[in-house]
Amino acid sequence: MRDIFNEQLEQLNSDLVEMGTLIGQVIRMTVEALVDKDIEKAKKVIRFEDQIDRQEKTIENLCLKLLLQQQPVASDFTQISAALKMITDMERIGDQSADISQILIGMAGQPYIKKLDHIQAMANETTRMVFKSIDAYVKKDLELAKEVILQDDIVDNLFLIIKHELIDLINENTENGEQATDLLMIGKYFERIGDHATNIAEWVIFSITGKHDDIDKITE
């Protein structure tokens, strides 16, 4: 019986990594669509939503099967609980990538009112955070998970810079208002993706240590 349980735990790990890898690819495509004004790529990101949702349901069902049909010990229960939390954040990252892509489609044909330096930097930072959080789970790497949590401050600071830049552009010319609002929403969605990557990293720490403290305690 334990052999079957271990096989199912391995399948859970494999499914989580597969979903995490897909999420990372979707974010990367979203960034490329933003920088290159690639509307077809933005549409492709949106089409990935259904696949992400299916993967979430598959993993959720496997977790419930492990909890209800088997008798997990404390360490197993911790791992399964962390997996359930992680897939929720992964699914939301997929949703927010689709939201960004919807905005990009609405902006089709418009020249950008500003260089995307800080938005691109923010997008790249959140992409790295997602990949690192998944890598930390695979490697059971506590220090790597802590790095992801610390990176969230970088993303938050970049969002503040973007917000002030866009407010200045609106003050200079009110005609900038519509696109400035769209770009601000894109920045906000990337900030949320960073928050979800942070959540994933915290659940990775929980899966390793069995503790889920606040960020100050985790990173001290």
TrEMBL record:
GO biological process, any: intracellular phosphate ion homeostasis
Domain called PhoU: residue spans: 16-103, 120-204
Domain of life, per lineage: Bacteria
Predominant place of localization: cytoplasm
Keyword Transport attached: yes
Gene3D superfamilies named among the record's database cross-references: Phosphate transport system protein phou homolog 2, domain 2
InterPro entries reported for this sequence: PhoU (IPR028366), PhoU-like_sf (IPR038078), PhoU_dom (IPR026022)
Location of the protein in the cell: Cytoplasm
Entry GO CC: cytoplasm
Keywords: Cytoplasm, Phosphate transport, Transport
Family listed: Belongs to the PhoU family.
Function: Plays a role in the regulation of phosphate uptake.
NCBIfam families associated with the record: phoU_full
Subunit structure: Homodimer.
Identification of the protein by name: Phosphate-specific transport system accessory protein PhoU
Lineage: Bacteria, Bacillati, Bacillota, Clostridia, Lachnospirales
